[in-house]
From TrEMBL, chain A:
InterPro entries, A to Z: Fe-transptr_FeoA-like, FeoA, FeoA_core_dom, Transcriptional_repressor_C
Pfam families in the cross-refs: FeoA
Record-level Gene Ontology MF annotations: transition metal ion binding
Organism name: Bullifex porci
Keywords, alphabetical: Iron
Domain Ferrous iron transporter FeoA-like: 2-73
Protein name as catalogued: Ferrous iron transport protein A
SUPFAM superfamilies, alphabetized: C-terminal domain of transcriptional repressors
From TrEMBL, chain B:
Family, similarity comment: Belongs to the TRAFAC class TrmE-Era-EngA-EngB-Septin-like GTPase superfamily. FeoB GTPase (TC 9.A.8) family.
Presence of the UniProt keyword RNA-binding in the record: no
Keywords tagged on the record: Cell inner membrane, Cell membrane, GTP-binding, Ion transport, Iron, Iron transport, Magnesium, Membrane, Metal-binding, Nucleotide-binding, Transmembrane, Transmembrane helix, Transport
SUPFAM superfamilies: P-loop containing nucleoside triphosphate hydrolases
Protein name: Ferrous iron transport protein B
Spans traversing the lipid bilayer: 281-299, 319-338, 345-365, 371-389, 433-457, 463-483, 522-540, 560-577, 584-607, 627-646, 658-678, 690-708
NCBIfam families on file: feoB, small_GTP
Residues bound to GTP: 9-16, 34-38, 54-57, 114-117
Organism: Bullifex porci
UniProt membrane topology term: Multi-pass membrane protein
Record-annotated FeoB-type G domain positions: 2-163
Length: 73, 715
């Protein structure tokens, strides 16, 4: 089981599952990270957190804490 | 009644640009009822009977953010005549997600497909006819920036209103969900108007607590519905909210399949810029350069020149214009009033009270406008989101946003524009925290106080000034950590899932407009409180009992202010400076912090003193010990800022309760810190009393406890 927090940069992954609940989960999904969505981690912020990823053709930044909720394959 | 168009769309979709194009200068800014979210309305150009309501930029209609709740409440209960949904064509998938929710509201919807010029330039293709057919909504191609297609869009909107054709959503959910939705409608929504039944059914299915509460459904039906939802959740293996979201995006994939062709290609210009700007190694240096430029131009040079000119010339002694030496406004008005034999008190009121107060408001404006110009540009071009991205890691620990860096930096120059700069922070909790803590940073006007204390009591020791900044930063960190644990800042953690928009050059007019709007709102909302306080304080200083009767006093010692100083000075005894002169100096510091120095000058018998008060250093050294002096300094650095900054806090909090919270917190915090410094310090140097020292230690221990204790979990 790999989470979005520790995947390789520049490699395409598919979202398998999103953990968590309530506001955090809804927000993540509202922004277009849903089951089966393809995403690529673009870069990590200079201070090591948050990360930037491309999803559905646009750039999104997400904290590592929240990225941990997203299971990818 | 007037026709009402609700303008809805994602942040960064060009909504503001479109709103400006639709309404021109014909707009007014207010607040959504009961909340501090800004509400903009305007009249459609050439259609004076059509109102355009600009909803906040939102990604969804979930119950979790204030902006989203405000928007959906408006759409559901105020029922505008039509929704004009602006969709960023260069970011179609995510933008259409909101569309799928808007079409369920039982209102007519028209889509304005914005940034078609960018799409075409990239070589991508969008078939807007196919899009329109698949979504069941009229679609107009526009470019808000170039003002193309706006007229056609307006015509389509007006035609749709005339036809009054309510949009029927073309998407449906899987059979299992649809069955439950039908069941919910039957069991719980019989009394709800037909056109909003579907929306409510979906919200009940999502277990949207706000809607469930509002509908007041009987508990039996509710538990039956809950049963049904649980069954589907088990069957489809996800929670109901996620099921709906998933299916919306699946529908969008299907819509896009036939109507959107992306040309396969490499990086866009925006990608290339971002590669450099947020590069692991270059990001911080570039950030430092950008911040330096903003600070240097708006605080150190251009902005300050303009502000100094307004303060020292226009509202000062002498004005030189095109080589002509003219008197400043106060001097000119004084001589005019004297020539008509106006009473002294009236001259005082007009010149020192009113003109002084207006000067205090307008004096900050030039600097502020320069700063706002930069902020508008940084926001417009997309860099501001990167600021949050780069600085997030440091600031979030203290309940602040990465964007709080800018207010803090500007705060070293002047707290007023710093507080106004907090507007760029979206999350309301982060914004409030920033507003409360920003003025802990010593601003330019506090430097004379530092110079006075350092010079008079510490022989100009090098460490006094740096320690002030250090204390300011520690105050922010400590306050952030402690306040974050209080009820005021608790609640759902705001997820930091933030879009990093494409870079683009904003138009000159949009930057200027944003600059002006902020400047104007400062004059309007902050101006009143500043003006009023200036007049009240002038009165307290100028009047009092002299020679047995109440009159305008010559000597500040006889003023009402001195009386008040005497009355309250005991409060400061535990801080080591319980003299009335010191209390009065602290109060006059509220007009402008540098007044602390000149007030001491007057009270110690000097008419006018240098900026660092060198003339009174000797007297100061007798009145204070080093410890009480330092305690006085710290209190004046941390306590309530000047009236102008208080006005700015009022404007940005937009709420009396929060204004009161901010000011009282600052004063209490300042008191506690000064108390600890004086009492524990006295104990160490052996001059204090045991009880005070112990109390100081107890307070210190309590603060440490608050810093390390775990926050109570809030359900």
């Amino acid at each position: 089981m790999t989470t979005l927090k520790d995947i390789q940069m520049g490699v395409k992954y598919k979202v398998a599952q999103i953990n968590g609940s309530g506001a955090v989960k809804r927000r993540i999904m509202d922004m277009g990270i849903t089951k089966g969505t393809e995403l690529v981690v673009r870069k990590v912020a200079p201070l090591g957190d948050p990360i930037e990823l491309t999803v559905r053709g646009y750039e999104l930044s997400i904290r590592k804490n929240d990225a941990e909720l997203i299971i990818v394959e | 009644m007037d026709l009402r168009i609700a303008l809805a769309g994602n942040p960064n979709s060009g909504k503001t640009t479109l709103f400006n194009a639709l309404t021109g200068l014909n707009q007014y800014v207010g607040n959504w009822p009961g909340v501090t979210v800004e509400k903009k309305e305007g009249r459609l150009k050439n259609h004076n009977d059509v109102k355009v309501v600009d909803l906040p930029g939102i990604y969804s209609l979930s119950p979790y953010t204030l902006e989203e709740v405000v928007s959906r409440d408006y759409l559901i209960s105020e029922r505008p005549d039509i929704i004009l949904n602006i969709v960023d064509a260069s970011n179609l998938e995510r933008n259409l997600y909101l569309t799928t929710q808007l079409t369920e509201l039982g209102l007519p919807v028209v889509i304005a497909l914005n940034m078609m010029d960018v799409v075409k330039k990239n070589g991508d293709q969008i078939d807007s006819k196919a899009l329109s057919k698949k979504l069941g909504v009229p679609v107009c191609e526009i470019s808000a920036l170039k003002e193309e297609g706006i007229k056609e869009a307006v015509d389509t909107v007006l035609k749709s209103v005339k036809d009054n054709k309510v949009t029927i959503p073309t998407h449906s959910y899987s059979n299992e969900i649809e069955e439950v939705l039908a069941d919910i409608t039957e069991k719980a929504l019989a009394n709800v108007p037909k056109e909003v039944q579907r929306w409510h059914a979906i919200k009940l299915f999502e277990r949207d607590s706000k809607i469930t509460e509002k509908l007041n459904i009987d508990s039996r039906a509710l538990s039956q519905i809950e049963n049904d939802i649980c069954k589907v959740e088990k069957e489809l293996d996800d929670d109901s909210e996620s099921l709906i979201t998933n299916e919306r995006y699946l529908f969008i994939n299907n819509v896009i399949d036939g109507s959107y062709k992306k040309k396969r290609k490499g990086e866009t210009t925006s990608d290339k810029i971002d590669k450099i700007v947020t590069n692991r190694f270059l990001a911080l240096p570039i950030f430092a350069v950008v911040m330096f430029l903003v600070y240097y131009i708006s605080i150190s040079t251009v902005g300050t020149w303009m502000t100094d000119w307004v303060n020292d010339c226009l509202f000062g002694d002498e004005l030189s214009l095109f080589g002509l030496a003219l008197p400043g406004i106060p001097a000119a008005v004084t001589s005019l009033l004297e020539s008509i034999n106006c009473a002294d008190w009236l001259i005082g009121l007009i010149v020192d009270g009113i003109i002084g107060g207006v000067g205090a408001v307008l004096g900050f404006l030039p600097q502020m406008l320069v700063l706002f110009l930069f902020l508008a540009f940084l926001e417009g071009c997309g860099y501001m989101a990167r600021v949050a991205f780069i600085m997030d890691r440091i600031f979030r620990k203290f309940g602040l946003s990465g964007k709080s860096f800018i207010p803090m930096l500007i705060g070293t120059g002047c707290g007023v524009p710093a507080i106004m700069a907090s507007r760029t922070i979206e999350n309301i909790r982060d914004r409030r925290m920033t507003i409360i803590t920003t003025t802990f940073i010593p601003c330019g006007a506090k430097l004379p106080i530092i110079a006075l204390i350092a010079g008079a009591l510490f022989d100009g020791a090098w460490w006094v000034a740096p320690s002030s900044y250090f204390i300011g930063i520690i105050a922010i960190v400590v306050s952030g950590i402690i306040l974050k644990k209080t009820k005021l800042f608790s609640g759902d953690p705001a997820p930091f899932v933030m879009e990093l928009p494409q870079y683009h050059i904003p138009t000159v007019s949009s930057v200027l407009r944003s600059m002006w709007e902020r400047g104007y709102s400062f004059i309007k909302k902050a101006g009143t409180i500043i003006l009023l306080s200036a007049i009240v304080l002038w009165f307290l200083q100028a009047f009092g009992v002299e020679d047995g009767s109440f009159m305008m006093v010559e000597d500040l010692n006889n003023s009402i202010l001195a009386f008040i100083g005497n009355l309250i000075s005991w409060i400061f005894i535990p801080l080591g400076w319980g003299n009335w002169e010191m209390a009065v100096a602290t109060i006059t510091g509220l007009i402008a912090k540098e007044n602390v120095v000149s007030t001491f000058g007057i009270l110690f018998g000097f008419a006018e003193v240098a900026e660092d008060g060198a003339e009174i250093w000797g007297t100061m050294a007798q009145a204070f010990t080093s410890l009480s002096g330092f305690s006085f300094l710290v209190f004046n650095l941390l306590c309530a800022p000047c009236f102008a900054a208080i006005g700015a806090i009022k404007r940005e909090m937009n709420d009396k309760k929060w204004l009161a919270i901010a000011i009282s917190y600052q004063c209490i915090f300042a008191y506690i810190v000064s108390f600890m410094i004086y009492q524990i310090g006295s104990l160490i140097v052996g001059s204090g009393n045991i009880i005070g020292g112990l109390l100081g230690i107890v307070v210190f221990a309590a603060m440490i406890y608050l810093l390390i204790c775990k926050p109570k979990s809030v359900n």
